[in-house]
Amino acid sequence: MLIEPCGQLERRGRAHPVRRYFLFFITVLLFPAVGPAYAEKILRVEAVPGVVKQGDVCFIRASGPASLTSIHGEFQGERFPMAFGAQKGTYEGLLGIDLNIRPAAYEIKVVATDGEGKVHRSGLLLKVKKADFKTQRLSLPSAMVDLDAETLERVDREERRLKALFQGFREERLWSGAFVRPVPGEATTVFGLRRIINGQPRSPHTGVDLRAEKETPVLACNGGVVVLVDPLFFSGKSVILDHGWGLYSMYFHLSETLAGEGDRVRTGAMLGRVGSTGRSTRPHLHWAIRINGARVDPLCLLRLTEHLRE
Q: What residues make up the domain containing 167?
């Protein structure tokens, strides 16, 4: 239907009342009131940092009414938890970016419910860039690489156990403030390193190797519950902490373990001592982090949470 411009109506004389009403009705349909649409956008969401790499960790922050009764984030079809921030009306969550995720722009959604039961949604696009992971070539005794049938069965059994462990989700958040380095030494083998052992490509390095002398105390990087204390084939004497909300930390190749499964520990609690057990050629600590299944760089987590120190 053709709606004539106002100028043409003026040139043709005064419009008929019915026609004026008809034009007003069409205008309301074409240009609806926009106030309520803006009112629904009560959440403002940001990612810190705004651009990440494979294996990074980022904060998702939302600000809105302090009256919200629940809030969570969504990434790649999976939920991640969010909690009240330091300031009233702010909410925060940790998001892990797996080291093998495809570089692209990903949508992050934040969904909240207020005291009246109304659901509010907001979100943003997070750009994930390709990380520059290095390659390392190692030569190890064949007995540590070419496994016999019995050892392969043990390795498969341990991998299934760890997979089931990391699928667990503790509703209680046990960590608080900044994460701390479990030993003072610097990284000798970085996160994400692609390894070729005796000429064969192997799984990437999903943690960091920290320099430390044998028997150096190994400390909990944050509060949590000990969920595994066991000697494993590849990682030797191992301790794993559940920090709640799908966040786990791992401490491998220990000479001895000083924590028991079920122990609830605080930041800085002594878990064991540095050693060279398992598939290791020298004393050091292998430290790794999982966030809701994502394998992330522990040093990135340290840098990101530094300002949360209490």
A: 135-308
The answer to whether position 180 is within a domain reads yes
Residue 309 has what pLDDT?
Answer: 54
Name which of 76-90, 171-185, 267-281 the model is least confident about. 76-90
Structure tokens at 272: 């064991």
In this predicted structure, the answer to whether residue 185 has a pLDDT above a threshold of 50 is: yes
Tokens 């989700």 belong to 169
pTM of the model: 0.82
pLDDT digits (tens, 9 = 90+) for 155-169: 999 999 999 999 989
Point out which residues pair with 111 in neighbouring strands.
72, 121
Give yes or no: residues 289 and 184 share one domain: yes
Number of domains in the chain: 3
In a domain, 247, yes or no: yes
Greatest mean pLDDT range, 82-96, 191-205, 207-221: 207-221
Is residue 80 domain-shared with residue 20, that is, in the same domain?
A: no
Distance CA 287, CA 210 (A): 7
pLDDT tens-digit series, residues 22-57: 443 333 334 343 333 333 568 999 999 999 999 999
Shared-domain flag, residues 94 and 153: no
| 199 and 106 part of one domain | no
**In this structure, are strands 264-265 and 194-197 parallel, antiparallel, or unpaired?**
unpaired
pLDDT of amino acid 65: 87
Is 264 part of any domain?
A: yes
